[in-house]
Each structure stands twice: as structure tokens, then as C-alpha cells.
Amino acid sequence: MKLYDLEVSGNCYKVRLFAALAGIELELIPVDFMAGEHKQDPVIAMNPLGQLPVLSDGATQLRDSQAILVYLARKYADDCWYPQSPEQQGEIMQWLSTAANEIQHGPGAARLVDKFGFELDKANAVATANSILPIIETQLSQHQWLALDQPTIADCAVMPYIGLSHEGGVSLDRYPNIQAWINRIKALPGFISMPAL
Amino acid sequence: MKLYDLEVSGNCYKVRLFAALAGIELELIPVDFMAGEHKQDPVIAMNPLGQLPVLSDGATQLRDSQAILVYLARKYADDCWYPQSPEQQGEIMQWLSTAANEIQHGPGAARLVDKFGFELDKANAVATANSILPIIETQLSQHQWLALDQPTIADCAVMPYIGLSHEGGVSLDRYPNIQAWINRIKALPGFISMPAL
User: Fold this and answer.
1) Helix, strand, coil % (nearest 5) of chain B?
2) How near does any CA of chain A get to the CA of B93, in Å?
3) ipTM surpasses cut 0.85
């Protein structure tokens, strides 16, 4: 099972992190982003959006880190990471959408501007970060984990770009419960890190 | 089962549409957005993000239209709308993320600027629309439905803001396969529309 991967991508790291925590073996295929390899075959043929990561598992090819987390959890992991009940899946899905929406376009986008020079609206990205982080702080003041009473793929999807937010000029100083949650994730068996986390 | 609802919201319409197609009965609770009712109880207590829709079903309260689609499909609908296999769920999840990310921040955001006066980066929203719509056009030139060989919650999640894109100054003239797909959805038994669609 191959993961077309970029080491500094938080979206790629979501998948590497979950695979490590759940004991799923991935063959990492580094993609040279600066050379534009994500816009060339084989990546672009598997993902016309030209984004990383891409998972290739036999006949199955998947783009989007959240979709890959659902697939890996359903196919290869213990149910605890993405339990079966509609209520639990709904609860987790809320946070997968938050990862694709507010986290990607908040701290994720701010980091793209500061670290990689993307021409995005930095003020809007910081405003989005400043509106979602207090909500996550409140959630984590009442719960140990984001979605359920145990770590799930929701934590793997949401944590990376929050843990990297300092690279976009967004500080976590005001969010002690978020900091404690990141440390709980870092203490999980099998945890792996990424640069700057 | 109550849906806290705003008629002109494409995100609320995703849920109303899927419920109608799947024969799920919802009690619609209109929320006066202009009066700020989404920032007051009971909505803000159920969804601190202050966004609509919110679903309340007994002890279960869910925000985010994609999460609500997963919950309703798993709990109340025939499996065809969100089949059980990891491969099929991964395929559908890709498009739920696209709905929360590129569709929300592309045609969805452009419409928020033009129709509701939101202060967002219109040029960036149109650029996002112009980059995702050709990919969806290509997908629909090869497939009748977005994710599988049948209509799924992916179609319900992605179609609304594309069908409303003219309200954000984004034309579908160049995308005949997208237009045909919208018409296929409109022809499904139980289909309901929304203003401007």
C-alpha cells in the first residue's frame, strides 16, 4: 500500500500519523513538490486535483486525507478509531469537515502564506483560525479527545495544522487545553512526529 | 427529528434534499439568520460555530451538513446512499471533503459575496471554482454520478452550491456534463428544489 507523500504537508502527516498509531504499514513514495511532480503522472492521473496525499492500495486509489483516514480505519484498523454507530460516525464526521474547511482555510492557509509563499488572504486565514481555535479550546476543556471518549481519526485529522499553526504566525499561548490535547496525542503508543510539530 | 434550517442556505438544502430523496421525515425549524438567531440559543448551544444547519434527533445533536448526511444515511436510509464497504465509503468521503473545502470556498463563497454581501476574497473564490469545476466536469463525462454507479450522499453534498453558482457570477455554460448531472438529480423520485436552483 503506497502513500504518495510530502514530508512537510500536514495533510500527508495526518495519514502517516494515523497509520503509525493504528499499526498500518505504508510504503511512502516521496513526491517532489517543488519540481511539480504532483502535477505529473503518476500523481495527477490518480488525483486530478493535483493535491497530496494520494493512497494507492491495489485497485483502490484515493485522494483527500480525510477520505484516506476513513478508508484505512474501516479496512485495516480496530473499530475504536472510527466506530460503527451512526451517532459516533456523525460526531467524528463533524470534525473531518472542520479539518477540510476551517482548519485547512485557517491555520493551514496562514502557514501556506508564511512558510511557502502562497498568495492567499492571510488576514482571512488568521481570522478563521481565531474563530475556530476558541471553539476547539472549549471542546477540549470538557473532553479529553475531540469527538468521542477515546482518540479517533477526528484527532488525527484536526491536530496537525493546529500543531503547526505557529508556522503561520498563529500562537497557541491562549489555548492551554489545545496544548494539553496535542501532548496527549504525542503520548499515544506509536506516535510519530513531523518537522516543526 | 428537527432540522434548524435556513431556506436560502445550500448547506441546509443538502440535508433537506437528501431527506426528501431517501424518504426521511424532518421537522424544519426556520432560523432567522438576518436577526442573528443562529448566534443565540437554542442554535448556538447546539453548534458553537454558529452555522446552519443543525440536526436535533433525540439525544443526538449534529452540526455540519456532511456529518448530518452521514448520520441520516447510516441511521435511516437504504444502504445504497452510503454503502458499507471501505472502498465505497472512501470514494464518497473524497467528495464530502470537496464539498466542505473547494465547493464551499469556491462557488459557495462567491455566492456569499454577490448575494449576501459577505466580505470574502471574491477573486480567490472564483479561481477556486474555476479550478474544481473542470475536474468535476471530467468526472461526470465518464460517470453518471459523482462517487459510485448510483446516486449517493456525495451528489447531495456537492450539487447544491454548483447548482447555485450563477448567484455568485460563476457560469456553468462550459460544463455540459455538470448540467446534465444536475438534471439527473432533479429527475430523481422525491426531488425537492430550493430558491434559484
Assistant:
1) 55, 10, 35
2) 5
3) yes
Is A66 close to B135, i.e. CB distance below 8 A?
A: no
Q: What's the pLDDT score for residue A178? A: 98
CA dist B191 and A83 (Å) reads 31
In this complex, which of A63, A90, A124 lies closest to B70 when CB atoms are compared?
A90
Find the residue in A nearest to B97 (Cα): A100
Please, are residues B15 and B53 in contact by the beta-carbon 8 Å criterion? yes
Instruction: List A61's β-bridge partners, or say none.
Output: A56
Which residue is listed with cell 453558482?
A: B165
Q: Taking the CA atoms of chain B, what radius of gyration do you get in angstroms? A: 16
Instruction: Answer whether B26's CB lies under 8 Å from B16's CB.
Output: yes
Helix, strand, coil percentages for chain A (3-state, nearest 5): 55, 10, 35
Tell if the CB–CB gap between A93 and B64 is shorter than 8 Å: yes
d(CA B74, CA B84): 9
Taking the CA atoms of B137, B85, A97 and A53 in sequence, report the sign of the dihedral they define. Answer: negative
Q: What are phi and psi of B63, to 5 degrees?
A: -105, 170
Out of B62, B68, B135, the one facing A48 most closely (by C-beta) is B135
Taking CB atoms and an 8 Å limit, are A64 and B98 in contact across chains?
yes
Span B63-71, mean pLDDT? 98
- The residue of B44, B71, B135 whose CB has the most chain A CBs within 10 angstroms, and thus the best one to mutate to test that interface, is B71
Residue ranges, chain A, pLDDT below 70:
none
Please report the domains of chain B, with CATH numbers, ordered by start residue.
2-79 (3.40.30.10), 82-186 (1.20.1050.10)
The shortest CB-CB distance from A64 to any of B60, B93, B124 is to B93
